[in-house]
Amino acid sequence: MSKIIVRGGNILKGEVNISAAKNSVLPIIAGCILSDDKCIIDQAPMLEDVFVISDVLRSVCAEIDVNRKDSRIIIDSTAIKDCEPAGELVRKMRGSFLLMGPMISRFGRFKLSLPGGCNIGTRPIDLHLKGFSALGAEVNVGHGYVEAYAKKLIGSKIYLDFPSVGATENIMMAAVMAEGETIIENAAAEPEIEDLAKFLNSMGANIIGAGSGTIRIIGVKSLRGTTHRPIYDRIEAGTFMIAAAITRSRIKINGVNEEHLKPVIAKLTEAGVFIKIEGDTMVVDGTGDLKPIDIKTMPYPGFPTDMQSQIAGLLSTVHGTSIITETIFENRFMHAAEMKRMGANIKIDGRSAVIEGVNKLTGAEVRATDLRAGAALILCGLAAEGETQVTDIYHVDRGYVDIEKKFQGLDADIERVNV
């Protein structure tokens, strides 16, 4: 076990390089199952979730070479002969459910232990399963497993009750080799969906409209191997944008896509942060007077739920009253109790958090209750007076590559220690 110790008060300066997106690379790794050729993922983020999903694929006899030095993953799914991944691995990470779509597509079956993940809400997989059923699969859930069988998948029109990212990805991957045309309506429009479609199309799939609310998939007979580089991680970029603001600093961030970050840029600009973008480089200046704002998380292109806890930390340091309304997950304010230990004034009322800015945060021992909460607590520690110790840091390692080293490169007083 390890924890991160932050000694707050330093002004950040310099530049930081953003890694490839965790939420993009996981479905891409799963999508490699669809071909019996080798697939190569370049500049892959070396994250705990990447290592876990790689082990999940190995448990069904895929050959995977994860080269940490070169940030390259080579996946050969030729030898897959089991459609029941190891349950103890699946339960480690909710992203394991992304194997369902590729497996039902290529092999006509799967059996998966119900997956785990961050405890931020129920996040049911019923939309995924309804999609598989609409394509002609027989789906059964019970005794801690979900199973599906299909002699042949047939294209269908599928309407999602909610624009679920995972359901959109799974149904896309299930439909790429189905007979005929599949239309997904009210599909998720996140950049990671578009990136997955680009990857699948480079394998020979025929996907049109990814990144919009309606996606059309024309089934093909087979897919080939390919090489792909995932998009930059917009959530990591947003986290470092808030790091500049919460420490009232000016930093340069390399590896950004302005289009993907529009809602975060808009809200930070509204709060008084100065942001300048040239190509894939951004300068964030948080040295001006900041003011409170109201935020509501929404599916893309709305404000991302994965940035909610980080901006809550920032608003805790801004004088005045801010209100954050969480519409995606019902249990995503667990960070509030930990921030209160640092002196934040946050009141939870149902799905809203009312934040009164305080003069200063103070260091404390706090616990990362989930991935993004852990990052938010590190941000609070950067701005706090004294020392902050963030425990259960394994959550953060699921989504941020060498987070303490990147902050050290910005002159933060931060270190990882083993306990």
Question: What is shown here, in short?
Answer:
Its EC number is 2.5.1.7. By secondary structure, the chain is an alpha+beta fold. The chain is 30% helix and 25% strand.
CATH topology of the largest domain: UDP-n-acetylglucosamine1-carboxyvinyl-transferase, Chain
Q: So what's the CATH class of the largest domain?
A: Alpha Beta
Uncertain segments: 117-122
The separation of the N and C termini measures 6 Å
Instruction: Calculate the mean pLDDT score and round it.
Output: 95
CATH homologous superfamily label of the largest domain = Enolpyruvate transferase domain
Task: Please tell me what the overall shape is.
Answer: globular
* Total strand segments: 23
Helix content: 25-40%
Tally of individual domains: 2
Report the β-strand fraction as a percent range.
15-25%
Helix run count: 14
Overall SS class = alpha+beta
